[in-house]
Amino acid sequence: MEKITAAITGVQGYLPDYILTNEELSKKVDTSDEWITSRTGIKERRIMKDGCTSDMAARAVKGLLEKMNIDPMDIDLIIVATVTADYPFPSTANLVADKAGLKKAWSFDVNAACSGFIYALSTGSQFIETGKYKKVIVVGTDMMSSIIDYTDRATCVIFGDGAGAVLLEPNHEGMGIQDFMLHSDGSGVQYLVQPAGGAAKPASHETVDERLHYVKQEGKQVFKFAVTNMAEVSAQIMERNNLTSEDVDWLVPHQANLRIIDATAQRMGLPNEKVMINIQKYGNTTAGTLPLCLWDYESQLKKGDNIILSAFGGGFTWGAVYLKWAY
Ligand code: UT7
After folding, report:
1. 26 touches ligand 1 (CB under 6 Å)
2. Which of 55, 200, 278, 307 minimizes the number of CB atoms within 10 Å of its CB?
């Protein structure tokens, strides 16, 4: 039987209008444009002021369906990657499906922090490859401003809000997702976590007073793990698929820090022109970074391009996806 591959056939992003610049942050906390730019590469980020995580995702999904002229009723499944769910339950994917009119789709969330999009993409691809489904939407969406402490300079300068959505459809020409390598290591919880609000530490006056509902990150430790693992898994997926640096057309790296991106590209032997970068505009949107890169660079992509997506995030979670662009 002819092999079915799962191909991305469309991409759309959504970014809130409000732009939080390094200048504005410098007035809130003891930081500077110089520090943020030289340590991270970030100049500004977007902040959601008129809704929540599912609203950003629903706007991306609606935009995607309009752009592709697809009836929302034709979608079989939607998977939403996020760590900033609207509620502990129901899932954000449930709410997005309702808001975007996907009345026939079932839905679930994937919680893998900054690796959420590649986890969800790999998962979604399986439903297409089995032949079970024809149209699966995968979204990466995070409203990081809802869990960021704007008095903590070590985290508030890094994160931003945004969402990106892709459509996965069956492909019979060998385009689409070729391979993925995914990893997790729960011992990383000590270095990057939102400590309270879950079963380990339910909300109380104390957790609020101690500011434990915000992201806590030991940046240096996370940096070390991120640099090593993101670069390593990216090189490994190239090796496993016999790809040289000449064969790879694009690296789509998680946008956490320009220095981590540079180290990954270097390990893969890729020049800057082959690396998608938009961290300067949006900061780290967690699950949103990879689809937002694809959206920003969509017009430069060609059918058959060899693309490696690569990410590292809280959990720890990390991994890479190798795909051939389908249009
Ligand atoms: O996406 C999920 C995964 N997350 C990541 O991949 C993030 C990985 N980590 C990083 O990107 C970097 O560690 C950061 C950007 C978070 C921090 O950069 P760094 O070069 O590792 O800085 P550091 O934490 O070692 O701090 C160096 C200094 C410290 O001051 P002292 O102790 O040397 O006096 C910090 O207090 O910089 C200080 N600092 C700041 N100064 C000005 C920390 N944050 C700021 C700030 N503005 N915003």
Report:
1. no
2. 200
